[in-house]
Amino acid sequence: MRATRALLARDGYDQLTIDAIAKESGVSRPTVYRRWPSKAHVVFDAAFGDTPGADDVFAGTDDFRTDLRRFVRDALDFWGQPVVSTAVLGILAERERDPALHIRTQQLLDEQTLSGFAALVRRGVEQGVIRADVDVDMLYHLLISTTFYAVVVQQDSHTSDLADLVDRLSALVLQGAGTERTTE
Predict the structure, then answer these.
(1) pLDDT in tens, 60-113
(2) Is residue 112 part of a domain?
(3) Start-to-end C-alpha separation, the chain
(4) At the N or C end, where does the chain have fewer CB atoms within 10 A?
(5) What's the whole-model pTM score?
(6) In total, how many domains does the chain have?
């Protein structure tokens, strides 16, 4: 995994090969293929295998606003990791051709993070900050896709003020899903 991460950071997804991974790791190609069926699977494990579990990411502080800001900041930080941002577009392209990879990426996004995010929103409802009828799935997709777009597509994570983006996204959530309505 260390060799794959180093090669990803140096060469990018497209230039990465199983031969290069094997050579950098000091093993043979068959050794790599015994464990992973394709480059995309090796890269998936290298990029996402050490991600914190939902319990770590969603440990609450009993203050929804603080927890929401932490979620948004963690999502921006996650997408901004050099190995993740390098790997993710290649993996997304490959998953359309590989049902097993498609399932693994959905499990990472849906089973781990969506369930934790839903618990976060439930705490917001219990605290009276978020409306009980909020569409949790849509709110999750809004935040994940926006943070992904800002960091991976626009590549703003290192040039923009992340604190400002965290503030703006969090305010947008509270304005749209919050119990307090503002009128102009």
Answers:
(1) 788 999 999 999 999 999 998 889 989 998 998 898 888 888 888 888 777 778
(2) yes
(3) 53
(4) C
(5) 0.83
(6) 1
